[in-house]
Amino acid sequence: MTALPVERASATPDPGRTPAAVRAVLARHADQATLALFDRELDGAYVEALGSGSPEPMRAVVGRWWTVAQMAEHGPAADRRFVSREQFAAQWERRNGRPFPGA
């Protein structure tokens, strides 16, 4: 199997960063007003992308909302995991006298 050229690989969207995936996460966690705002912004970006011939307006909106969806999906539990990992790395470093390999 041959690796894709960099230009082509960067154009392949992350499956979790598609409008449908972002909306699915928002539908589980957000209220109707938030969903409506996402839909309006996405529709506006679509119109702008068609007019400019560039996918950048869509990428910008989906990227911004992907961050919101991730915070909604993972919330404080993700923050706790991050802190726990940091604490684990610090303890490992103290015990072994060198940085944690996964840090």
Descriptive overview:
With 103 residues, the chain is mostly helical. The chain has one domain (17-96). 77% of the residues lie in helices and 0% in strands. It contains 4 helices and no strands. It has helices at 6-11, 19-29, 32-52, 56-96. Helix 2 packs antiparallel against helix 3, helix 2 packs across helix 4 and helix 3 crosses helix 4 (56-96). The radius of gyration is 19 Å and the shape is elongated. It starts with 5 loop residues before the first helix and ends in a 7-residue tail after the last helix. Residues 6-10 have low confidence and may be disordered.
Spell the H/E element sequence: HHHH
- Give the end-to-end Cα distance, rounded to a whole number of Å: 31 Å
Helicity range: over 70%
Largest beta-sheet characterization: none
Q: Supply the helix-strand structural class.
A: mainly alpha
The number of distinct structural domains comes to 1
- Report the radius of gyration as a whole number of Å: 19 Å
Q: Tell me what portion of residues adopts beta-strand conformation.
A: under 5%
User: Tell me, what's the shape?
Assistant: elongated
Number of helices: 4
Number of strands: 0
Q: Give start-end ranges of low-pLDDT stretches.
A: 6-10
**Overall pLDDT, averaged?**
79
